[in-house]
Amino acid sequence: MANLIPMKNPIAEIDGDEMTKVLWKLIKEKLLLPYIDLKTEYYDLGLLNREATGDGVTVRAAEAIKRLGVGVKCATITSNAARKTEYGLKNLFPSPNGTIRAILDGTVFRRPITVSCVKPTVSTWKKPIVIGRHAYGDQYKAAEMRIPGPGKVEMVYTPADGSAEQRITVADMKGGGIVQGIHNLDESIKSFARSCFLYAIGEKLPVWFAVKDTISKVYDGRFKELFAQVYESEFKERCAAAGVTYFYKLIDDAASRLVKSEGGFLWACKNYDGDVMSDLIASAAGSVAMMTSVLVSPSGALEYEAAHGTVQQHYYRWQKGEKTSTNPVALIFAWTGALAKRAGLDDTPELAAFAKKIEAATLKTMEEGKMTGDLARLASPAPSHILNSWEFVDAIAGSL
Ligand code: NAP
Ligand code: MG
Questions:
Q1: Residue among 339, 302, 321, 336 nearest 39 (CA)
Q2: pLDDT tens readout for residues 204-217
Q3: Pick from 279, 387, 280, 294: which is nearest to 333 by CA?
Q4: Peptide bond preceding 381 in cis form (omega within 30 of 0)
Q5: Cβ atoms of residues 128 and 114 within 8 Å
Q6: Ligand nearest to the CA of 282
Q7: Which residues contact 316 (CB under 8 A, 6 or more apart)?
Q8: pTM for this model (two decimals)
Q9: Beta carbon of 292 within 6 Å of any ligand 1 atom
Q10: Residue 39's CB: how many other CB atoms inside 10 A?
Q11: 248: CA distance to ligand 2 center in Å?
Q12: Does pLDDT of 99 surpass 60?
């Protein structure tokens, strides 16, 4: 076909499971393949293929993202005991997202897609708030102990080089209680800061970073210090050139400013803060199906995906023949994000413009009151009728 939009280089295409796999095929068929001479390196991360390859396919997919610079990923099942029975698996492999994140040393940024018919819970928010979550250490790699009765709890560091140990008292416990030891690594914090500044420069968003260094002078203090160091030594000029500002705030101050703000910034969060805040922002902004997610590696490689899972219950209904009203918007934006990034790297403005066109057509369709059930429940005014996924994608294709 003569007039398909050409692509210079491929993107890593990472297929997944259940309802999102069904939508994946639909999006490609209706919104991409009729218009683009799509070039991808295809990796099937469906549960059975992960099993068949001893999870090797996950590692190869992550390496492809690194090599090609851009990937797009469908949602995948994280195997557990129930899935082992359901799919007759021999092994349980770790979460593919965890494996890919570890290989790319990346940070996940979650950003809501907004439409005017769904008002955010916080009325002052005019622009999306993006959360960047440092996904290493702190409470998520903690050593914890139940303390049965009175006694001293100490923290001991034994240097690998044999020099003198360091020891401090955590608490002289007067009775039974609990204790937790957490850690983080300078290199991981610096990678996190780099990913945040790279993302913010790409998206032209101000960066907020907030911890509680007035209370946690050494631990949170180190976070604050390393963030400032990475900014000053590696990003200050690039940020200035892109018009990106950097603010450090105390976390409680940031929380109170957040609800009075207009939005439109990146909030870089420590692991636990990011866990809580990303869910808070997601539900305040609307449906989980309207949340996109980008994994940013400090090397600059990016992986785009929807923040939601495989929408298991819809899949079982689809298998019984139902045309479900599953929302494909975050998956569509994962594709457009990846295509726009590819276009930016390859300097192919035609492809960049088409990615924007798909996004505009998707938003326009919803603004016209054509949407899936999850969004219809939140929309005001309520739409006249709810579309199933196939009708919704057809409406977008029609608008394209
Ligand atoms: P989920 O797939 O996100 O779905 C939870 C519920 O949220 C759904 O039952 C549905 O609610 C609603 N929902 C989510 N996405 C939707 C969409 N696009 N359109 C309409 N409604 C949507 O989470 P889960 O059921 O906890 O997890 C299912 C599987 O996904 C698990 O095996 C998990 O391991 C995997 N998972 C993968 C990823 C990933 O790969 N990034 C992330 C999370 C979970 P209603 O049923 O009320 O309509
Ligand atoms: Mg959470």
A1: 339
A2: 999 999 999 999 99
A3: 294
A4: yes
A5: yes
A6: 2
A7: none
A8: 0.89
A9: no
A10: 14
A11: 23
A12: yes
- Determine the 3-state secondary structure of 382 from DSSP: coil
Contact predicate 317/149, CB 8 Å: no
What DSSP character marks residue 388? P
Scored b (16 or more CB within 10 A) or e, 184-223 reads: beeebbbbbbbbbbbbbbbbebebbbbbbbeeeeebbebb
- CA–CA dist 45, 333 (Å, integer): 20
Q: Find out whether 251 and 114 touch, Cβ atoms under 8 Å.
A: no
Please give the angle made by the CA atoms of 5, 306 and 87, to the nearest 5 degrees: 110
Ligand at minimal distance from the CA of 275 is 2
- The count of other CB atoms within 10 Å of the CB of residue 146 is 8
Query: Which ligand is nearest the CA of 73, by number?
Result: 1
Cα 276 to middle of ligand 2, angstroms: 5
DSSP state of 5: B
The per-residue pLDDT for 192 is 94
Alpha-carbon gap, residue 324 to 332, rounded angstroms: 17
- Mutating to test ligand 1, I would choose from 24, 279, 310, 327 the residue with most ligand atoms within 8 A of its C-beta, which is 310
For CA atoms 73, 78, 82, 87, the dihedral sign is positive
DSSP H stretches of helix in the chain: 18-27, 47-52, 56-68, 81-87, 96-104, 186-203, 219-230, 236-242, 251-258, 271-285, 312-319, 329-346, 349-367, 373-376, 389-399
Domains of the chain: 7-108+291-400 (3.40.718.10), 119-138+187-285 (no CATH), 143-181 (no CATH)
Q: Are 193 and 227 in contact (CB under 8 A)?
A: yes
H/E stretch holding 368 reads none
Check pLDDT > 80 for residue 1. Answer: no
Å from CA of 275 to ligand 2 middle: 4
Which residue lies with its CA nearest to atom 46 of ligand 1?
313
**How many beta carbons lie within 10 A of that of residue 366, not counting itself?**
25
**Measured CA distances, 104 to 160, 300, 338 (Å):** 27, 10, 16
Residue nearest (by alpha carbon) to ligand 1 atom 47: 374
Q: Is residue 2 pLDDT above 60, yes or no?
A: no
